[in-house]
Amino acid sequence: MSKDNEPGDLSPWGRGVPQAGVRIANERAVLTLITLAPGSSNADLARRSGLGPQTTSRIITDLEERGLIARGQVLRGRRGQPATPFFLNPHGAYCFGVEIGWRHLQIVLIDLVGTVLASHSAPHDYPDATSVFAQLADGIATMTAALAIEQRGRIVGVGVASPTSIGRNIDLFVAHPEQRPLWEALDIAARTAADTGLNADWFNDGSAACWGDFIAQSPPRPTGFAYFHVGAYVGAGIIADGRLWEGPTGNAANLGAIMVPDRHGAPSFVHRIASITAFENWLREAGRSPPPGSPQDWDWALLEPYAGAWLDDAGRALAQAAMTAQAMVELDRASIDGVMPRPVVERLLERVQHHLALLPMLRTGHPVVSIGHLGAGAAARGAALLPMYKRYFSRAWNHFGA
To answer: Average pLDDT in the 112-132 region?
Structure first.
C-alpha cells in the first residue's frame, strides 16, 4: 500500500476543496442556473443554488464584468424590491466545432447560448490525413476573420469530433495504404491545436452528437438518454444520470457495435444493418450503384423499393439496440437521427417504433423514442458545445436535466 493510501488517509474523498475551486464551482452553478432559467434574479439564483444572497451577488457582479451575463429590464410591480433579471450574454464566448466524418468535413462557430453563427461543410470520399487538417484550419481562419477583434479574444477553442479509430477502419473507405499509419500516429486534438493556434479537445463523434441533441431538448431534459445517428456508420451516445457517458477512451457508448440478428437470423452488428454503408451494400447486391454525393441530396423516391426494405431492417435493429441500452441504463428517452432528409428519418423512426411495439417487455416497458433535433450537423454542434460547457458550466452535468 502506498503512503498516499495508508489507513486513516481518506484521499481523495477526504480532502478539502481549495477556495479557488469553490469559487469556480459556484460560478459554474450560477451560470448553469441562468441557462436553465433565463431571467432569474439574484434572489432566485441564491434560492436555487443554496448560496447566500451576498455570495450570489458577488458572483453575478464578476460574471457581468467578464461579459458572460447581461442584465435585463428591471421587473417592477411585484412584491418586495424590484428584481433585475439576468441572462447569458451571447457574445460572452465563442467556440468552433468540427466533425471529421467518413464522408465529409463540417465546421461550425457558435456563441455562448449555442446559436450557430457560421457553418461550412465539404464532402470527401474519405478523411485524408494529408489534407483534412489544412482544410479545417483554413475554414476556422475564414470564420475567425469575420469576427471583430474583441470577439476573437473570446474564442474558447475548438471541439473536434471524429470516429474513434479512423486508422483502424479507413481501409473500408480507401485503398491508399499510407492513410492507416498516418491516422494511427495522429493525435487529432494536438494536430488541430497546432494548425489553428487554438485550444482543442477531441470527442467521439457519436458522443458529441448525443450531447448536441441533449442540449437542443427543452428542459426538463432526460437523465437517461440514448442517441442513434445513422450515417456512414451508426454514431451513438448515452446520457446516464444526466452525464455524458464517455469512458476512458471516449468510445464507451458504441451502441452501433451491439450484436443483433440480421434479416437472415445470423448475428451481426447494428453498424452493418442500420447504416448508410449497409444500405449502399443492399443496392450493390441488387445490381444498382449507390447515388453519388450526400444522402441528404439523394432522390429517395427513386431508390424504392430498396429504401423501404432497408428502413424496415434498420428500424428493427435500432429497436433492439434501444431495448439493450435500456437494460444497461434507465432510459427516459431515445432519439433517432441521421444524415438523410427529414422525411426519410421520420420513416425510419416509424419503423423503430413499430418494431419496438413487437418486442417483449420486462418491468421497465419500452423506451420512448422520438426524432432527433439536429440532423446531419449534430456532431459538429455537439463538439462546439462540449468545450463551452466544460469551461463555463457546472461539471455536475445532471443539473441540465433538472
So the answer is: 95
98 and 179 housed in the same domain: yes
Query: How would residue 49 be classed by pLDDT, with cut points 50, 70 and 90?
Result: confident
Of the residues 88, 105, 121, the one at which a domain ends? 88
pLDDT at 76 over 80: no
In eight-state DSSP terms, residue 83 is: B
pLDDT of residue 19 exceeding 70, the answer is no
Residue 321 near residue 258, CB atoms below 8 Å = yes
Q: Are 252 and 300 found together in one domain?
A: yes
> Is the pTM of the predicted complex or chain greater than 0.85?
yes
> What's the first-to-final CA gap in the chain, in angstroms?
41
DSSP 303-331: GTTHHHHHHHHHHHHHHHHHHHHHHHS--
Domain housing 71 = 15-88
Distance CA 276, CA 212 (A): 21
- CA angle 79/82/86 to nearest 5° reads 120
CATH number at residue 395: 3.30.420.40
Structurally, the chain folds into a number of domains equal to 3
